């Protein structure tokens, strides 16, 4: 086992991205993710990678498009308002079927909002976010260890399906320090196989084209149908979740990211009091772990959805459980973070008033 | 064993550093730890606090609502955090800078002349080290030697003179009770 290091979540992202063999970062500063570009500027310089502080988020995301089209692992990070600015570029990248990694360390919104942790960009992340019919693979870390490991997973999924991938963190995960184990050998970018679609210079071979549009009648429709097949494969193969104490549960708390940590503590409190309560933590938000929730709803009477928003993931829980169970909700929007006793109280209420 | 700790004071009193030192110390003693600072538009002289969890099991929530231990460095933080302490919890407070006194009867207040001792050692800013020393002794949560190692991890660029002074402040705090 490798030695554990006490690290900020934002720093764990940087080490994870570099260990994943990514050597291209472009981004623009915004709290609460500034430790990512700060450390990235030092680390990329030290290892001969590319660090660019762009003039705007729009420039950053379009540089990612270029780097990805050239066949390289490329990433950016930002926080909510900055991610909004990137949506046009993400849509183009999705339309061109390019793999990139975008990290969103969410802060309170809407608008300029504040710099406190939030989960209010769930809809934006899981419904495409920009214009057009598309989806982005979305991973939800809940620890420093995840923040180290998920960049590698995100690049692998992004390249397997030729699709942009998002890591959806929040201000708490970015600013928290936890022990992190560098759990895998760093990948040498030179060892990554060359992509058969990469624009690497067409001397002595057929030219390749990367683009998100085709004006020939019917062509774009055809592309979209083909992309839908890809999305269906992702939904079938890549649903990831963690289930704790769900087997005998009368109530299952559904929460991701920071809320899954807080809810995990509340579930422990409930178990100590003899309440049969479990925790389902979606790890992929898109594809949403619909199958496990559908199965659970055959026997679990109550679900409690906990989010740092007015309620967004709750829609996916309702869709998955198809009206078979009661869906309760506890939300804290605008930078509010729930506490374990707060969630425990909601659990008691949902189970019929502290029985 | 899980201990939830909140450290609070003015920005510049070493509140965040204290939390990180506890984090390193927990890790050195092979415990599970989380450290979360209240971050924001903070500045020197503004308020600062952080939450630390040290546990023998994986830490579920890094968010602490009702701490077992609070370390209070200034007056406003006493009013804010005294009501949150768990019954039978410990409240360490910097008596040099705090004129009011804890009111609750169901917790144990531990007054520490942190700034006075730090000044006596030659540097007011190491009052946080005195507090950490006292806390380590009273709770038995971490060894003094571990804290000394941990502060060296935190202040990696500091010179030996400063690091030894920090050690002295930790020891003085540890010897107080």
TrEMBL record, chain A:
Residues 249-343 form the Pyruvate:ferredoxin oxidoreductase core domain. It comes from the Bacteria. GO terms for molecular function: 3-methyl-2-oxobutanoate dehydrogenase (ferredoxin) activity. The keyword Transit peptide does not apply. InterPro entries: 2-oxoacid_oxidoreductase, PFOR_II, Pyrv_Fd/Flavodoxin_OxRdtase_N, THDP-binding, Transketo_C/PFOR_II. Signal peptide: none annotated. Pfam families: PFOR_II, POR_N. SUPFAM superfamilies: Thiamin diphosphate-binding fold (THDP-binding), TK C-terminal domain-like. Its EC number is 1.2.7.7. The keyword Transcription regulation does not apply. Residues 15-186 form the Pyruvate flavodoxin/ferredoxin oxidoreductase pyrimidine binding domain. Keywords: Oxidoreductase. It is an enzyme of class 1 (oxidoreductase). Coiled coil: none annotated. This is 2-ketoisovalerate ferredoxin oxidoreductase. It comes from candidate division TA06 bacterium DG_78. The lineage of its organism: Bacteria, Bacteria division TA06.
Automatic annotation (TrEMBL), chain B:
GO terms for molecular function: oxidoreductase activity, acting on the aldehyde or oxo group of donors, iron-sulfur protein as acceptor. Gene3D superfamilies: Pyruvate-ferredoxin oxidoreductase, PFOR, domain III. Residues 11-175 form the Pyruvate/ketoisovalerate oxidoreductase catalytic domain. It holds the Pfam family POR. The keyword Oxidoreductase applies. Keywords: Oxidoreductase. PANTHER family: 2-OXOGLUTARATE SYNTHASE SUBUNIT KORC (PTHR42730). This is 2-oxoacid:ferredoxin oxidoreductase subunit gamma.
């Amino acid at each position: 086992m490798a030695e554990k290091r006490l690290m900020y979540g934002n720093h764990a992202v940087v080490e994870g991205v570099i260990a994943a063999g990514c050597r291209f970062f472009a981004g623009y500063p915004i709290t609460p993710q500034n430790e990512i570009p700060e450390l990235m500027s030092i680390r990329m310089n030290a290892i001969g990678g590319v660090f660019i502080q762009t003039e705007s988020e729009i420039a950053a995301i379009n540089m990612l498009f270029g780097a990805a089209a050239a066949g390289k692992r490329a990433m950016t990070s930002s926080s909510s308002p900055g991610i909004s600015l990137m949506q046009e570029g993400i849509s183009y990248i999705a339309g061109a079927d390019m793999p990139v990694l975008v990290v969103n360390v969410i802060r309170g919104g809407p608008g300029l909002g504040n710099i406190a942790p939030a989960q209010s960009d769930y809809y934006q992340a899981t419904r495409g976010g920009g214009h057009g019919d598309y989806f982005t693979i979305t991973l939800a870390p809940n620890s420093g260890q995840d923040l180290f490991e998920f960049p590698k997973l995100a690049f692998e999924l992004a390249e397997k399906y030729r699709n942009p991938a998002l890591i959806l963190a929040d201000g708490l995960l970015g600013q928290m320090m936890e022990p992190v184990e560098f759990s895998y050998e760093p990948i040498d970018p030179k060892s990554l196989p060359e992509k058969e679609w990469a624009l690497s210079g067409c001397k002595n071979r057929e030219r390749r084209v990367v683009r998100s549009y085709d004006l020939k009648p019917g062509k774009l429709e055809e592309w979209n149908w083909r992309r839908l097949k890809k999305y269906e494969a992702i939904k079938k193969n890549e649903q990831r979740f963690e289930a704790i104490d769900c087997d005998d549960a009368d109530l299952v708390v559904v929460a991701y990211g920071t809320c899954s940590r807080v809810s995990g503590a509340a579930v422990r409190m409930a178990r100590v009091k003899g309440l049969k309560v479990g925790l389902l933590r979606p790890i992929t938000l898109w594809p949403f772990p619909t199958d496990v929730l559908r199965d659970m709803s055959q026997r679990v009477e109550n679900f409690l959805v906990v989010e740092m928003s007015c309620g967004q993931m709750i829609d996916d829980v309702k869709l998955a459980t198809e009206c078979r169970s009661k869906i309760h909700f506890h939300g804290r929007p605008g930078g509010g973070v729930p506490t374990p006793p707060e969630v425990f109280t909601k659990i008691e209420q949902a189970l019929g008033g502290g029985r | 064993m899980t201990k939830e700790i909140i450290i609070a004071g003015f920005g510049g009193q070493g509140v965040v550093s204290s939390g990180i030192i506890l984090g390193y110390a927990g890790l050195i003693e092979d415990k599970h730890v989380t450290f979360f600072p209240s971050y924001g538009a903070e500045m020197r002289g503004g308020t600062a606090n952080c939450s630390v969890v040290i546990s023998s099991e994986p830490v579920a929530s890094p968010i602490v609502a009702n701490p077992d231990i609070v370390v209070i460095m200034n007056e406003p933080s006493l009013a804010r955090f005294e009501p949150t302490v768990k019954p039978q919890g410990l409240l360490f407070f910097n008596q040099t800078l705090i004129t009011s006194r804890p009111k609750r009867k169901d917790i144990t207040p531990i007054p520490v002349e942190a700034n006075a001792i730090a000044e006596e050692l030659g540097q007011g800013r190491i009052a946080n080290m005195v507090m950490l020393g006292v806390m380590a002794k009273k709770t038995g949560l971490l060894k003094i030697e571990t804290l000394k190692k941990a502060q060296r991890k935190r202040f990696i660029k500091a010179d030996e003179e400063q690091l030894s002074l920090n050690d002295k402040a930790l020891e003085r705090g540890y010897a107080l009770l």
